[in-house]
Amino acid sequence: MKLKGTALAGMALLLFAGCRGLTLPAERAARQQLSETAPPYQPGAASYALPTLTTNSPWGDFLAYAMFRHPDVAANYHDWQASVERITIERSRPDPKLTFEAYIMGTITSIMPGLMTDIPGPGKLSARGRVAAAESEGKYFTFKASLLQTAFGVKKAYYQLHFLDEKIRVDQQTLQLLKILEQSARAENETGKGTLQDVLRTQIETDKLSVEIENLTDSRHAIVAQFKAALGMTVSDPEPPIPGDVAEPPFTLTDDQLVTKAFAKNLQLQAMSAEIRRAEASIVVARKERIPDFSAGAQVDVKASPFMWDPQLSMTLPIWRDKIAAEIAEAQANAHSAEARLTAGQIALAVDFAEKSYQLREANRNLAVLDGKLVPRARQSLDVARAAYLSGRLEFLDVMDAQRVLLDLQLARVDGQLQREISLAELSLIIEGALPAPAPMPAGAAPGNAQRSKAKSGGM
């Protein structure tokens, strides 16, 4: 009986000792990446104090506030966190089972507690773990991309708001000019040099511009709401302060260098590459389905004398070759699909880069000619027209035409500035693959890249 008690105690110790499995290199790398990110990040955690935003706050405070506050970022972070835990689940062995049998023939003649465990075929668990690790790598890139997208959303809403205010300022200056022109038209009409029609023309333009200013001012509320949403603020939060003048730093690299950098760092392409690694690891898993799984265990009869063991061993028979072939073909098709999506993504990236680069060059050319030639000449033309009208050498309609040209050019300049800043922000989003300071993400490559060659070979 002492031997029986020792055996049962050993079984209980094995069951309740809190066993741990063998970690994979990709799993350790993923957990290290997560641990480095979690302490400063932890979206929504009370341990992190959000920056206090004021109109004088540095631009980095607004970006950091959005990254730590925005629910999309938090959702992608927790998706990544869950995928890291999935690696441990996939590479872990099944839980053992406590069994019990009894033979009863009028009385209990035999009581047989036991322990059984399933043993997956060699290499299956590590292969499944590598699939989960590659999937976690993709979630990491998705999370990091959401940080960049959030920063871009803040910038875009800010630029729209900033240049809306600039449009209102230009319109208000033009409105003051129209009032001066109306006074000139009235004075000329009173002296008989002008007509009442000149006064009415200025009043019509003044009324039209006043309504335009009112509409722009009203639209400002919608753009402020966009800026507030980009910061991750809810409806109940107060209106955010608007930062001072912010401009994107210009790029110093050539187009070819920027394209090369974009292909190397673009997070969407890196996520697609991780999907290829996941598909390749899935092929290894499918091929290992040819290997049988095992179950092993033992029971001990606590009533028998002499002492009696009942060892048990079973093995699956992977006889359905068509199923295994289909699993391998499915995994290979998924790999080809992922490779095609990566190629399509690279093509789309090149097109997107070309479009944004053209928009940036176009905006720069337009602003250069507007600032250097058109706006100064239009302002000079208006001054000349006003002087000629007052001296009786020009019709008032010509003055109004000169005023409209100046207004249109000034508004075109504002639109060009908006296009330039948003194009720069979009190119930065495409190219950099890095976070603006202060960045709540550690530098360096994502976990799992080193595992690709092992996944291809099916190694342990």
Note the topology.
Layout: H1 2-16, H2 25-37, H3 59-69, H4 71-91, E1 97-105, E2 107-119, H5 124-190, H6 196-230, H7 255-265, H8 267-287, E3 294-301, E4 308-315, H9 321-390, H10 396-431, H11 452-457
Antiparallel strand pairs: 1-2, 2-3, 3-4
Explain what the structure shows.
The protein is an alpha+beta fold and 460 residues long. It has one domain: Outer membrane efflux proteins (OEP). It has eleven helices and four strands; from the N terminus they run ααααββααααββααα. A four-stranded antiparallel beta sheet has the order 1-2-3-4, covered by helices on one side.
CATH class reads: Mainly Alpha
Classify the secondary structure makeup into a structural class. Answer: alpha+beta
Largest sheet, strands/sense/barrel: 4 strands, antiparallel
Can you give the helix content as a percent range?
A: 55-70%
Judging by the overall fold, what is the CATH architecture?
Up-down Bundle
**Count of extended strands:** 4
> Mean pLDDT, rounded to whole units?
82
Summed up, the domain count is 1
N-to-C order of helices and strands: HHHHEEHHHHEEHHH
Determine Rg (CA atoms, Å).
36 Å
